[in-house]
Automatic annotation (TrEMBL):
Lineage: Bacteria, Pseudomonadati, Pseudomonadota, Alphaproteobacteria, Maricaulales
Name of this protein: Probable oxidoreductase
One MF term in the entry's GO annotations: oxidoreductase activity
UniProt family annotation: Belongs to the short-chain dehydrogenases/reductases (SDR) family.
Cleaved signal peptide residues: none
Keywords: Oxidoreductase
Annotated organism of origin: Algimonas arctica
Length: 324
């Protein structure tokens, strides 16, 4: 296996996976039709993984599958329809998935929406919290029988949930998750959802570790992808200025660089016996509660076990399902 000690900001997905054999591993990637999810699918398919792309738009998903076959001709890949902003869609997806795939080795919760105008999901949740967190919360828990089947076979399944450095913007609000009282602000709402993603990864790891399931949250870095489809010119200028001025994160990443930390969290041998952490630049990071800047590291609030447990209970209430 190649030297893994030099991974960092510029490491690519292919470099992370160098020397990793994913033959026989079943990988489900949400939002795999474009951007980071597409690159994660391609890179893992090239290492022998069987890939399932979950896509809201089947036409785009099938186009992504065709593109991956263009670079990985023998890729094992299929596309399934999933809308994370619709609980009925998630339930239908998971029912079909478990019927066809009783075992799941790696789940990459990659899909999301960022900084959109105020809107609600089909079920009435604030769009960013409902899609980014609640959608993946329900999806992951309904797929746990397949993940646990993998664990029973000693395959050490993992769940990787994409968070973001945007979690610095705001912690979760357990009292008003859907902006029923507070005035909506799109970046705050995005930050809340990304804090929720990290807290979910923390609590899932606590609940799954005894069965052999590990969970991680990932900050992929600043990347221009379809995730930014709601951004205004002013938003883009702000982000470009922020990243260009950051000493610890020199500029935007390419898509292959952005997919690297997801691939690292999903496969790194050095993470086999640890989980529940927030990763960036293909490695563990540190607590940084300097609220004056936007530097590397994680806010302490995403490692608050009590809040993570309360968020889990609230999420169960909101989706009307309970999970161990």
């Amino acid at each position: 296996m190649s030297d893994r000690s030099g991974f960092g900001h510029q490491t690519t997905a292919d470099e992370v996976l160098d020397g990793i054999d994913l033959s026989g591993r079943l990988v489900l990637i949400t939002g795999g039709a474009s951007g980071l999810g597409h690159e994660t699918a391609r890179a893992m398919a090239a290492k022998g993984a069987q890939i399932i792309i979950a896509a809201r738009d089947m036409e785009k998903g099938e186009a992504a599958m065709t593109a991956i076959h263009g670079s990985v001709p023998d890729a094992q890949i299929e596309v399934m329809q999933l809308d994370l902003a619709d609980l009925d869609s998630i339930r239908a997806f998971t029912t079909l998935f478990l019927r066809e795939h009783p075992r799941l080795d790696l789940l990459i919760n990659n899909a999301g929406v960022m900084a959109c105008a105020q809107a609600t999901t089909k079920d009435g949740f604030e769009m960013q919290f409902g899609t980014n967190h609640l959608g993946h919360f329900l999806l992951t828990n309904r797929l746990r029988p397949a993940l646990e089947a993998s664990a029973k076979e000693g395959r050490k399944p993992r769940v990787v949930t994409l968070s973001s450095r945007a979690h610095h913007t705001a912690p979760v609000d357990l009292d008003d998750p859907n902006y029923k009282q507070a005035t909506y602000e799109k970046w705050e709402a995005y930050g809340r959802s990304k804090s929720a993603n990290a807290l979910f990864a923390l609590e899932l790891d606590k609940r799954g570790r005894d069965t052999g399931l590990r969970s991680y949250a990932v900050h992929p870095g600043g990347i221009m992808t379809n995730l930014g489809r709601h951004l205004t010119d002013e938003d883009i200028a702000m982000l470009m200025a922020r990243f260009s001025q950051s000493d610890d994160q020199p500029g935007f990443k390419t898509i292959p660089q952005g997919a690297a930390t997801s691939c690292y969290a999903a496969t790194a041998p050095e993470l086999a016996d640890i989980g529940g952490m927030y990763l960036e630049d293909c490695g563990q990071t540190f607590v940084n509660d300097d609220l004056k800047g936007d530097k590397a590291g994680q806010r302490s609030w995403i490692m608050d076990a009590d809040v993570a447990s309360k968020l889990w209970t609230l999420s169960e209430e909101l989706v009307s399902e309970q999970f161990a």
